User: What shape does this take?
Amino acid sequence: MPTKGTFEARVISDLDERGVSYKYEPEKLAYYVERHYIPDLAVGTMIVELKGYFRQDAQRKMKAVKAQHPELDIRFIFQNASATIQGAKKRKDGSKMTCKEWADRNGFQWAESTVPKEWLL
Assistant: This one.
């Protein structure tokens, strides 16, 4: 059985030797940590996040904020919308997920470099 380390393997081996019944990683349990999100900009009722390098922790945070506050209009301005996101896995074609693909996949409006005029109407 694959384990995360030698300590786990040692404890599991001991249980096996003693004939103890157990389940390894039997389920996923959701947990929530209360944090505070501070937007980069507020333009009217719109929240605008400015992203150069899009780190994994920021990706998780923004998905959590959107899920917990669906009433907010959160949008992104990417320095380079075609840049790959941190932690992106290689696809079969060798490419990786970009900032704009991440935003589209997660339901965020986005633009590159500056706030578009149409957002200001």
In short: The first strand starts at residue 41 and ends at 43.
